[in-house]
Every structure is written in structure tokens, then in C-alpha cells.
Specification:
Distance between the termini: 36 Å
Shape: globular
Strand content: 15-25%
Number of helices: 8
Helix content: 25-40%
CATH topology: Rossmann fold
Radius of gyration: 17 Å
Strand order of the largest sheet: 1-9-8-7-6-4-5-3-2
CATH superfamily: Alpha/Beta hydrolase fold, catalytic domain
Largest sheet: 9 strands, mixed
Length: 291
């Protein structure tokens, strides 16, 4: 634990992990979008063209003494353009995170699935996942260093326009990207999917100029309505450009096809929701098109 980190922030971060990350793994129509004071995410503009052949590879980079093992996907022959960082669930950088990176590449983006745990570490049981996630969230300076190392790697890629980098995250990763927005990371946009929304260090006015998308489930016990309302008040106070979309019957982990099976295996209130998954992905496409 970093000594320079205020004790109250450490305790709050650990508490948030304990509440939200006991679960990271009903179809429904989404509720009306709830834009923030800065307006809704931009309407769709020209997105990178859908492509055929993709190239993928594992990449190694580091943050201080910690080796990090990421995964990058991009269209073959891609010219310089927008890119996306993908932050994994509490399980670690697994096939789900890689799938999301590849799906983004299919839409013309360079996508880097990042390693927030170090060494490509993966969890097979919720107890391990909770431990790994807690270690990261209780040391935000280190988390920020690992995130920035991934962003620097992506920004240096010749296929990437460094002014058009977004970050998206799922569950644990959703909390991470929102923390990075609060910390003022130079990102064009961030998107959180069923991620924790609370923070002991609220966003300050002018800290983040990019667009923010939050997609959350109305039946998610780890992100209750009070937390959603508190997040909106925080964003309004900061003058942030954000949009919150609530999918009424969606549970925690609604974008992950493996969530239902994991919920049954480990007795967790998580489940996949194909309708909310598809709808939230369309919201993401609109967000990224506005970069």
C-alpha cells in the first residue's frame, strides 16, 4: 500500500472492491438515456470502416518493476486513427477481454487489452479475483502507473492517433477507467459497463474533457440506484460530459456471455443479458464515433 495515499481513500477503495467485486463475472429494453449537464454522447459520425483481416499479438510492457502482458488487435493495413484501451473484469486479462479487443478491431480500431494485475495473472475463483482486484484498487498510484504504461504503448503505435484514444472497462475495469477519468488522464472518451461508480475522490471541475458513458443494470445489486444518482450528481458538479444508461432488468455482468454460468457455479447474482449487451455496444459505437 502506497504510504502517500490518504488512509480514507484506501479504506474507501477497499470497501468499494469488497462491495462491487464479489461478483464480476433478463433481457430488457433500455431506459431512456440520462444525459449529464454536458449533453448526451455525440450522435454517430463516420466510424472507421468495418474490415476483414485482423492482426493480433501479445505484447509485453512494464510499469516500474512490474511486467505487464497485454493483447493488441488491429485491422491489417490500418492507417493512423483512433484506438481503444480495454480493461478487463476482475478475472484478469482473459479470453473475454481479448474478444472485446478483437471486436473493436473488426470495427476499424486499434485495441489494446491491458493487464492491470501484472504478469498476465488470472483468477479462476472469486476469492482470488477479489484479492487481485483489491490489491490494485488499494494502491491507486500503482494502478495509474500500470494504466499509463498501457496508454503510452498504444499512443506510440504508428497506427494510432494519440489524440483519439478511448478507454473502456467491464466490472472491475469499468471502475478503473472512471478512476482514470477522475485523475485527468488524456483520453478522448471512457466507457464503463456494469462497473462500480463510487469514489472517495470525486472528479474536480475541468479534470476531464472527454466524453463519459456509463452502462449499468437496473437489477445490479452491486451498483444500486443510489450509487447511480450519486455518480450523476458528481458528474454534474464537475461539469462533465456524460451519459448514464440503465437497462432495467439487467444484472451485474450483463455483457459477459459466461456470467450466467459463473453466477450459478459460484452462487453470485450475475447474469448475461443479450439485449442489454447489444444495446450497450451500440451506445459504445456512438461514443467512439464522436472522438
Amino acid at each position: 500500500m502506497c504510504r502517500s495515499m490518504p488512509l480514507v481513500f484506501v479504506r474507501a477503495a477497499i470497501a468499494a472492491v469488497a462491495l462491487t467485486l464479489v461478483a464480476c463475472g433478463g433481457a430488457s429494453e433500455p431506459s431512456a438515456a440520462e444525459p449529464g449537464s454536458g449533453g448526451e454522447t455525440p450522435s454517430a459520425q463516420a466510424t472507421p470502416a468495418a474490415v476483414g483481416a485482423l492482426e493480433t499479438k501479445s505484447v509485453s510492457y512494464s510499469a516500474g518493476a512490474t511486467q505487464l502482458n497485454g493483447f493488441i488487435a488491429y485491422p491489417a493495413g490500418r492507417d493512423k486513427g483512433p484506438a481503444v484501451l480495454v480493461v478487463h473484469e476482475w478475472w484478469g486479462l482473459n479470453d473475454y477481454a481479448r474478444m472485446r479487443a478483437q471486436k473493436l478491431a473488426e470495427h476499424g480500431y486499434v485495441a489494446l487489452a491491458v493487464d492491470m494485475y501484472g504478469g498476465g495473472k488470472l483468477a479462476a475463483h472469486p476469492d482470488d479475483a477479489k484479492k487481485f482486484a483489491g490489491e490494485v484498487m488499494s494502491n491507486m498510484p500503482e494502478a495509474k502507473a500500470r494504466f499509463e504504461a498501457a496508454r503510452a504503448l498504444l499512443a506510440a503505435d504508428p497506427r494510432v492517433d494519440a489524440a483519439k484514444i478511448a478507454a473502456i472497462g467491464y466490472c472491475f475495469g469499468g471502475g478503473v477507467v472512471l478512476h482514470m477519468a477522475r485523475a485527468g488522464e488524456p483520453l478522448a472518451a471512457v466507457a464503463s459497463f456494469h462497473g462500480m461508480l463510487g469514489s472517495a475522490e470525486p472528479m474536480k471541475p475541468g479534470a476531464f474533457s472527454g466524453q463519459i458513458l456509463v452502462a449499468t443494470g437496473g437489477a445490479d445489486p452491486f451498483v444500486p440506484g443510489e450509487q447511480v444518482e450519486a455518480f450523476k450528481k458528481e458528474m454534474d458538479a464537475a461539469g462533465a460530459h456524460y451519459e448514464v444508461v440503465v437497462y432495467p432488468d439487467a444484472k451485474h455482468g450483463f455483457t459477459d456471455p459466461d456470467a450466467t454460468a459463473r453466477g450459478e457455479q459460484f452462487q453470485m447474482p450475475v447474469a448475461y443479458d443479450a439485449s442489454a449487451d447489444a444495446a450497450s455496444w451500440q451506445k459504445l459505437e456512438t461514443l467512439l464515433a464522436g472522438m
